Amino acid sequence: MAVFTPLSDDQVAEFLERYTVGRLQTLKGVPQGTENSTFFVTTEQGEWVLTLFEQGGFEDLPFFVDLLDYLAARRLPVPGPVHDRDGVALQRLAGRPALLFPRMPGSHPSAPNLAQCAALGDALGRMHQASQHFTGERANPRDLDWLTRRHREVLPFLSGDDQALMSREIADYTQAFDGIELPSGAIHGDLFRDNTLYDGDRLGGIIDFYNGCTGELLFDLAIVINDWASDETGDLDADRYEAILGAYLAHRPLTGQERELWPTMLRMTALRYWLSRLLVIHVDPPAHDITPHDPARFRTLLGKRLEAAPPGFPDAMA
């Protein structure tokens, strides 16, 4: 979240007249973020989040709107977009596509405890159970084909050892997933800790679905485990790992193929973020003046996943 397109009180007050959310009381730009302009809006009737979309991919916005409507209707903790008086969610403001959301309660957990991990696993399991029936389609923009194509662009910037590691890993993934069809559905695609909000141990909301797509559910789960269950050194914390997976598997047990490919998927999603962060630094600089994320964290995670197999699945759900 950030502000790249400033808005005045008058602009937002006029914009809010399209809705039945009350009159503007306060408007505050949110400084954190990398892609879109975000504002906290307070009206007589509550608190809201206004997002202006600053970069390409606008053709995908109806997918995000439909997915959030679908999940919110199933009582998942996501911010369903607010629809205007005519039933339309996707708007334009200051020449940008715009969406208005209810503001979800809580803050990002920097060091999630076991109760918070279990709440996340429970919500993700319910989300994946429901999302397999969502009919919208958006190809995964960071799938194995993307890894195969784009990793060659960063090889000149890596050491010889890292070049060999990246190329060898992608060859392994290609072989492991060849001809395999894993359970798929709509996924979040970027469910890091800073894309959740907690009020104490209660999960107040899962936010920022703009990497959402149609993809393998195991891919989404592996992203979560690599972020939520890894300690500062990159090793998996067994208690957090079990808390997330135990709650998740209660809603969606894994297939035999998914269990077999689980270690490989953990490696592949670690490499996915190593590569994407390398691309931002060396090939595709951000459109705005921001500090890119450090790729080293995910190079470390990949090394740790190669050094040791993940813990087993919780006994009751294996």
Automatic annotation (TrEMBL):
Gene Ontology MF annotations: ATP binding; homoserine kinase activity
CDD domains: HomoserineK_II
Residue span(s) of domain Aminoglycoside phosphotransferase: 26-253
Keyword Metal-binding: no
First-tier enzyme category under EC: transferase
UniProt superkingdom: Bacteria
Keyword Cell inner membrane in annotation: no
Pathway membership: Amino-acid biosynthesis; L-threonine biosynthesis; L-threonine from L-aspartate: step 4/5
Family: Belongs to the pseudomonas-type ThrB family.
Alphabetized PANTHER family for the sequence: AMINOGLYCOSIDE PHOSPHOTRANSFERASE DOMAIN-CONTAINING PROTEIN, AMINOGLYCOSIDE PHOSPHOTRANSFERASE DOMAIN-CONTAINING PROTEIN-RELATED
Name of the featured protein: Homoserine kinase
Gene: thrB
